[in-house]
Structure formats: C-alpha cells, structure tokens
Amino acid sequence: MTRVVVTGMGAITPNGNGLENFINNTLRGKVGIKKIKKFDASKTGITVAGEIDDFDSNEVIGKKAARRMDLYSQYALQSADEAMKMAKIDETNTKPTDLGVIYGSGIGGLTTIQEQIIKMHDKGPKRVSPMFVPMSIANMAAGNISIRFNAQNICTSIVTACATGTNAIGEAFRQIKEKRAKVMIAGGSEASVNEIGIAGFAALTALTTATDPLRASLPFDKNRSGFVLGEGGATLVLEELSHAQQRGANILGEIVGYGATSDAYHITSPDPEGNGASRAMKLAIDEAKISPADVSYINAHGTATHANDAGESKAINEVFGEKSDVRVSSIKGMTGHLLGAAGAIEAVITIAALQKGKLPVNVGCYDQDPECAINLVTSANQDAPEAEYALSNSFGFGGHNAVLAFKKWK
C-alpha cells in the first residue's frame, strides 16, 4: 500500500505571514480580522475583513515577476516557496517528471479583473493589459508554481468554491497513492478582499455587518450573522512515504483518507440535514481504516453563517454520535473565511495541532447555539497529546463537500 506523508508546509494568512507565525498565532488564539484598509468599503455596509497587511512581493516573488501575477498567484507562490524549502525537494532528489502540482483558487484573479474592467470602461478596450487573461485565470497559481519548481508531472487546478483547497490536497493525495507521482505541491490561495469581492458577497447577505473585529466572525455562536471575508494561501508538499524516507526527509504528518461528495441541493445553501457533509466524513474515515471513535479532533468548516454551522453540527453528530467527545473548532473566528484557500490553511493547522498535541480554540463563540450541539475546543481542553487522528472539513457553494483525514506522524 502506498502511503502519503507531508514533508513541507507554507502559509500566508490574516493572523500570520509565514508558517511559524500562522501556527503559533492560531494556537494562541490571535485574531487577524481587522478594519478594511485596502479600499473605502463604507458604501458596501461591510467594515472588517481578514486582510494580509504585511506582504512584500519582492521578498520571494521578485518585482518583475510580481507585475505579471495577480495577488492570489503571489500568495500561492510565496507559500509554495516556503513549503518546498522546508521539504528540501529539488532535482537532486526528485525527478521533475515525478513532481506535480494540484492547486486551486475559488475565484482567481479578481483584483486584476476588477482593475481591467474599470480601465476598459474609463479608457476603452485598447487600454486593457495584454497580461489581463494570464493574470486573472484561476489556473495560474498552479501554472506559476509548476514553472518556478520545474514540476513536470500533472499540473492542474481545482475550483470548488470554499472546498477548493481541501479538494486540491485530496486529489494530490490520490495522485501519489495511485502511483502517478512521487511528490505533489498542493493547496489553495485567494485574494478577493476588494470592492467587487466584498460587494458581491454582501449582496448575497453572506457577510456579517458587525464592526468589532473581535465579535465579527462567530462560528457556532447563537448570535452569528455571516462570515468575514479573508485572503491568503497555504501549500503542502505531499510525498510518497518510501521516497521521503529514502532521502531522509523530516515528516510532519500523514494523509490517510479523503472524502468528496455533493449535496445536489442548492447553489449557495448547504443541505440543512448535512447529509453530503456526513457522507464525506464517513468516506475519509473509511479510507483511513479507522472508526469515528479514533478521531480526536475535527477542524470544522464553521463559517459563522446560520445554515453552515447548524448543518455541519448535524453532520458531525450523525457520524460521531450526539454524545461524542470529539473536539471541534473552526479557525475562521481568527482568520475570516479564505474561500478557496480556507481548506489549505486549515489542513496546515490540523497537521500542526496533531504534531504539537495542542488544538486551536474555537475563537469567536461567546454563547454556543443549542442548534450546534458539538464539543468545541476551548482553552481548557485544547491540550491533546493523545490525539492521533483528525479530520479537516470544507464545504463550498454548489454543494461541494471535501474532507481530509490526517494521522499524527510517530
């Protein structure tokens, strides 16, 4: 049986730029949600977002290359660079034809699209940048990563809204497990904190209108009122176990299961009974060849919308039982919702939580909704040295459900 391990990780998130900052800040409950500074959001009715405010594209991307990439591709490439350096993958130990990329974005180059449409409207179609298409299309994070690291195996993109990052990692896991690649670069990135991104989600009434960053994203709280839009990205380097061992790699964790289903219910609302979500969790558990009782932690999708949190809680109780002691938390109270990048940053923190024996607290729940009758992680129960298995859930518009099962590396 081919086993798949994680040997590198990278992240850029609203509450921490760089892997170490993100992990340490998340495990101590630091909120990265803040007042929107990128543009005047007053007319949208939305005042807070999970903005990245300490990113310098020159450090990793380079000034010339950055001018030819939308911000979402820049976030992807920075986190991929960090992950590849950690994994120490290069052409001395891995053939380019054995190295692939599956990387996604929920929306793609939305900032570029916004800027170029405004330019066309104001100055005419001849003024549209020749880089408009290659900067805005949603596969270019994958393409840029492949070019940077000479990855010549599969290079493709997943677009499943808020399940994107998890699906990308899951499909990369399959690529190695089914012996089509030795090493895969996988993850998701998003850069939609801009006028059209905020205005579009606000028009859907999906975003909270709360003004206090500490009381805006409230996963599983009975006063939750919508999600906070976030941005950033994360990358995992997945590797065939024998390949990693032969080169003496430092192994961070193991992926042991992946489940993907569809609600086939509604374009934006999840199935209120959580049927698709529960089936995805069961598939991941089954592939891992474990039972629900073996799972100590679930990193929930937990968007802080009424429908998502209630449906996900039902799904968890369906799989684990209503009196289960499995601990659950969403990190979106700290980061906001990174859309296509959410599953990637959440995979990173789930692996780190198992590694360190410490779970991220469900920040933002001040008064737990009785409809969300699950065992939330608090500062009192976040120490988990015994935790061996964990799930990470992601559910996207369109009814996409994706779940990853991780095992602590010993």
Automatic annotation (TrEMBL):
It holds the Pfam family ketoacyl-synt. GO terms for biological process: fatty acid elongation. It comes from the Bacteria. InterPro entries: 3-oxoacyl-ACP_synth-2, Beta-ketoacyl_synthase, Ketoacyl_synth_C, Ketoacyl_synth_N, PKS_Beta-ketoAc_synthase_dom, Thiolase-like. The active site is at 162 (for beta-ketoacyl synthase activity). Residues 1-408 form the Ketosynthase family 3 (KS3) domain. The keyword Transferase applies. It catalyses: a fatty acyl-[ACP] + malonyl-[ACP] + H(+) = a 3-oxoacyl-[ACP] + holo-[ACP] + CO2; (9Z)-hexadecenoyl-[ACP] + malonyl-[ACP] + H(+) = 3-oxo-(11Z)-octadecenoyl-[ACP] + holo-[ACP] + CO2. Keywords: Acyltransferase, Fatty acid biosynthesis, Fatty acid metabolism, Lipid biosynthesis, Lipid metabolism, Transferase. It is an enzyme of class 2 (transferase). One of its GO terms (cellular component) is cytosol. CDD domains: KAS_I_II. Its EC number is 2.3.1.179. NCBIfam families: fabF, PRK07314.1. Involved in the type II fatty acid elongation cycle. Catalyzes the elongation of a wide range of acyl-ACP by the addition of two carbons from malonyl-ACP to an acyl acceptor. Can efficiently catalyze the conversion of palmitoleoyl-ACP (cis-hexadec-9-enoyl-ACP) to cis-vaccenoyl-ACP (cis-octadec-11-enoyl-ACP), an essential step in the thermal regulation of fatty acid composition. PANTHER family: 3-OXOACYL-[ACYL-CARRIER-PROTEIN] SYNTHASE, MITOCHONDRIAL, POLYKETIDE SYNTHASE-RELATED. Belongs to the thiolase-like superfamily. Beta-ketoacyl-ACP synthases family. This is 3-oxoacyl-[acyl-carrier-protein] synthase 2. It comes from Limosilactobacillus rudii. The lineage of its organism: Bacteria, Bacillati, Bacillota, Bacilli, Lactobacillales.
